[in-house]
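re: the backbone from monday

yeah here it is again, tokenized this time
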């Protein structure tokens, strides 16, 4: 009587081992590229309305808003900039700002002393070196105080139509989860992901990834069970896999809450964000 169970028990680990071995087979670079491009296509269908989530009317406003967005949410920046741009609408105006007054105007975004120094510095540079205009070249943008490649690519892609990858924390987290890269350094991440996609896709790819990271693929508890690209994700299962529980983790318009922009673009399916002081945050 012991022979059959022994045989059955002996077969099960063998089958399991074969399955594990098959699952552990490394993905070729070509297969990864194909999977990455399919993820991009799927995200384009999920977020056809993906866009920069900072309110802006011109390149200077986008540049300032992007600098302010460091270490805070786009929502908080959008709630702060209407009064800011009403008072300092041009680089010349901001260059002449009294630092203490500018600090007070941007205080809600945090790190307001360092950001004030950057804003006045970049405004002086725009006034004195670029005729009061935001330059449309990355080589020039990264020479401005407080402006790195991420900020430069945001401005180029969304104010000038120049393709670029915006490697923020959401972007880096997701592309590593998806095994597009193992790099941690933003410039190396940018280079490796750029090699996977046509240049024409870079800006919209950035928006789609950031949208997905903010709404579904969160840092601490991804909503795996509500993820539209779960079957393509090597990290599936790191978060909540139960569909009902996962749906409760969705944020912004996917969770039935307001978005981050007070003035969202046409076609946005969610509600506008509330102004500063309104208890409904949308986060």
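seq for it, each position gets an aa:
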């Amino acid at each position: 009587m012991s022979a059959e169970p022994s045989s059955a028990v002996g077969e099960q680990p063998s089958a399991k081992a074969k399955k594990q071995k098959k699952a552990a087979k490394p993905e070729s670079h070509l297969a990864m590229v194909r999977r990455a491009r399919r993820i991009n296509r799927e995200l384009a269908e999920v977020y056809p309305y993906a866009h920069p989530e900072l309110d802006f009317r011109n390149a200077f406003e986008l540049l300032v808003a992007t600098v302010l967005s460091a270490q805070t949410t786009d929502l908080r920046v959008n709630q702060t900039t209407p009064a800011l741009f009403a008072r300092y609408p041009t680089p010349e105006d901001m260059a002449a700002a009294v630092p203490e007054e500018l600090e007070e105007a941007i205080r809600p975004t945090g790190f307001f002393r360092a950001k004030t120094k950057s804003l006045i510095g970049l405004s002086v540079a725009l006034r004195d070196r670029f005729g009061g205009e935001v330059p449309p070249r990355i080589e020039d943008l990264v020479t401005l105080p407080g402006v790195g490649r991420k900020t430069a690519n945001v401005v180029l892609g969304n104010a000038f139509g120049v393709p670029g990858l915006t490697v923020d924390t959401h972007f880096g987290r997701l592309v590593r989860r998806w095994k597009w890269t193992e790099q941690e350094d933003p410039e190396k991440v940018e280079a490796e992901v750029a090699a996977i996609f046509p240049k024409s896709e870079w800006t919209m790819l950035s928006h789609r990834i950031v949208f997905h990271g903010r709404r579904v693929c969160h840092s601490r508890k991804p909503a795996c069970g509500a993820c539209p690209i779960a079957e393509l994700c090597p990290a599936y299962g790191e978060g909540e896999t139960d569909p009902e529980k996962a749906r409760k983790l969705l944020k912004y318009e996917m969770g039935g809450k307001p978005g981050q922009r007070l003035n969202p673009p046409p076609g946005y399916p969610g509600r506008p964000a509330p102004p500063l002081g309104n208890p409904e945050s949308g986060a």
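Residues 3-23 form the longest helix (21 residues). Residues 1-21 have pLDDT under 50 and may be disordered.
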